[in-house]
Amino acid sequence: METLMRREFLGTLLAGALAVLAAPGALAQNRAPVRFIVPYPAGGAADQITRLVAQAASQQLGTPIVIDNRGGAAGMIAAEATLRAEPDGTTFFVGSNAPIVINQAIYAKMPYDPEKDFVPVVGMGKSPLLLVTRKELGARNVAELIALGRKPDARFTMGSASSGNITHLAGEGASRAMGFKVTHVPFTGSAPAITSMLGNNVDLMYDALPSCMQQAKAGRIVPLAILDGKRFPQIPDVPTLAEAGYPGHDASAWFGVMARTGTPRAAIDGLNRAVNAALKDPELIARLNHIGAQPMPGSPEAFGRFIADERARWIPLAHLLGVKAD
Predict the structure, then answer these.
(1) Topology of domain 128-227, per CATH?
(2) Pick from 69, 91, 33, 62: which is nearest to 278 by CA?
(3) In CATH, which of 3.30.420.40, 3.30.70.260, 3.40.190.150, 3.40.50.720 is domain 34-126+253-321?
């Protein structure tokens, strides 16, 4: 009888211990905070999407996720900072079009190899680009922009989030297709580029929705076309560029978590599970949609295949257009 009672007591004790370990925050006290190094300043699409996803994912992990904004050099400053950290599963890079894909095509020399030095963890969110202009330019639609741009003495200034950013490359391609020239003006992120446009210093920009949509809805800048296969629900009156007569130029800014090569697979899988669980939350999905983004869930392998497809599309286009870093 005494032996039976002892077994029951030990069984209850073990069950209680396992329940504590299974709780979301049970291991937080034994873990250092996770750091996401973002290659753009606060306020832009990368920052907004990362903060929303990180906040939700941290609840799944049971440990804080700290956002570390390191803008500049088309994301290469942030990438290098990630590579200087130990690959111990506490420091991750927020990869995007430029530092993981397009930089390979437009920079003669890079301080890292995005295909060898980083491995995919999980996608977070993507956002179609929106063609916007400053109000004083006077173009109310794509046809009027083209008419202004094709005048003999016309040369628009085009802002971008950085040299090599998708806002640069897609903008060059779409502008050339519409038959007008642009002078590229790179910034350290979308937020400062839009601020410059509000000050009438930049004529147009092909920007991701999170950093320009609210300004467009408020009437401070003019939205002309969205570079996607369908109109975006939050701005239903804005046509697609295809509807305006220029199909084949769909482009989105995307953001996902990358790890330094050598990071333990257990850390990669754990973070992947946390982010995927967060991206299923209807509240997070609604918040992403509200700022102009869509979730990008999936396995590390699926995210890797997505990146490979992006390289196959954008690197040849960069070579074809002759786009080089400014």
Answers:
(1) D-Maltodextrin-Binding Protein; domain 2 (3.40.190)
(2) 62
(3) 3.40.190.150
Please give the structure tokens belonging to residue 260.
Answer: 């330094």
| 128-227 shares the fold of 34-126+253-321 | yes
Contact 223, 235 (CB under 8 A): yes
Distance CA(77)–CA(34), nearest Å, equals: 19
Residue 164's pLDDT band (cuts 50, 70, 90): confident
Determine the 3-state secondary structure of 206 from DSSP.
strand
Handedness of CA 318, 48, 267, 283 (dihedral sign): negative
What predicted TM-score, i.e. pTM, was given to this entire model? Answer: 0.85
Q: Report the sign of the C-alpha dihedral through residues 70, 291, 122, 309, in that order.
A: negative
Instruction: Give me 293's structure tokens.
Output: 């983004």
Phi-psi region of 184 (alpha: psi -120 to 50; beta: other; left: phi over 0): beta
pLDDT digits (tens, 9 = 90+) for 244-260: 999 999 999 999 999 99
| Sign of CA pseudo-dihedral 260, 263, 265, 267 | negative
